[in-house]
Automatic annotation (TrEMBL):
Lineage top rank: taxon: Bacteria
Native species: Streptomyces litmocidini
Keyword list, A-Z: Sigma factor, Transcription, Transcription regulation
PANTHER family the UniProt entry points to: ECF RNA POLYMERASE SIGMA FACTOR SIGJ, SIGMA 19 FACTOR
Protein's name according to its UniProt entry: RNA polymerase sigma-70 factor
Pfam family, one: Sigma70_r4_2
Domain SnoaL-like: 175-255
Length: 307
């Protein structure tokens, strides 16, 4: 097998590692591309292409994350990861770890970790790499990597998402949520929302937010029940879709352009968090992006016209 074929076979794994470290589709794709350039330029073929490529993409991602953290501290409003619709890497033996580790909740917890802690946690807990491989990758001893993992686990443990084990139950609850959303059904929404549900948006200062972060089942239900029927009246469409391994949706304008994504955290049979990503920079990898400012004006006009 030649270099090109080996790289293409491992590309899904490399992207999945980089995305979990970076929380950005575009930055992960850039890291994978840089990994290929280094692999292609290497005069020798490594004994283990998987080990070489995984180590290379991790090191690149660590360097990118160190500079990205400064930008994220200056970010306008809440910062969320770029939405991922489909994780290209599959491993039946680690399916649960892969699905949970790509969720918005888990990625936001990973933001608490240092770049090294985050990388060690991802390589060990999510992808099952050995400590010898991890030590070689991050340039630390195996003992140091074990200590990094202990610290990372401690940081992650308190806020670790407790998602429902049954995917079918989550999808059924999400379907009820979206039906009530489209129908403007306040009671239907209340029935599926946790008492302390939070609705939070990421516009990054580059798109309007129809509502600031709000909490509480009644407030969230009333806002959504008013907002979404008005959006549908101006021909926006709501397309249910997995977002970061959890139930969610893509909202599109009448031309099919992406306005925003919704991702739901479902815990104990209720929707606990609704995250909306409106920042156009974070949606560009999904296709053409809608004019959120123009649509904001149209939605507000539709809300004023409601009886």
């Amino acid at each position: 097998m030649g270099k090109v074929e080996e790289f293409q076979e491992l590309r899904p794994l490399l992207f999945s590692i980089a995305y979990r470290i970076l929380g950005s589709v575009s930055e992960a794709e850039d890291a994978v591309q840089e990994t290929w350039l280094r692999y292609d330029a290497s005069p020798t073929t490594p004994a283990s292409p998987k080990a070489f490529l995984s180590a290379t993409v991790t090191r690149i991602a660590i360097d990118v994350l160190r500079s990205a953290r400064v930008r994220r501290e200056e970010y306008v409003g809440p910062w969320f990861p770029e939405p991922l619709l489909d994780d290209p890497y599959e491993d039946p033996e680690r399916a649960a770890e892969l699905a949970d580790s790509v969720s918005m909740a888990a990625l936001l917890l990973l933001e608490r970790l240092s770049p090294l802690e985050r990388s060690v946690f991802v390589l060990r807990e999510v992808f099952g790499f050995g400590f010898d491989e991890i030590a070689s990758t991050v340039g630390r001893t195996e003992q140091a990597c074990r200590q990094l993992l202990v610290r990372a686990r401690r940081h992650m443990q308190d806020g670790r998402p407790r998602f429902e084990a049954d995917r079918a139950e989550r999808q059924e609850l999400a379907a009820r949520f979206f039906d009530a959303l489209k129908g403007g059904d306040v009671d239907g929404l209340r029935n599926v929302l946790a008492a302390d549900v939070q609705l939070v948006g990421d516009g990054g200062g580059k798109a309007p937010q129809l509502a600031r972060a709000i909490a509480g089942a009644d407030k969230v239900a009333r806002l959504l029940a008013a907002l979404f029927p008005a959006m549908l009246r101006i021909d926006l469409t709501l397309e249910p879709h997995q977002v970061n391994g959890q139930p969610g949706a893509i909202v599109r304008d009448r031309d099919g352009k992406v306005l925003h994504t919704l991702a739901l955290d479902i815990v104990d049979g209720r929707v606990l968090t609704i995250r909306s990503i409106v920042n156009p920079d974070k949606l560009a990898h999904l296709g053409p992006v809608a004019d959120a400012w123009a649509i904001n004006d149209q939605v507000r006009a539709a809300l004023r016209e409601q009886p």
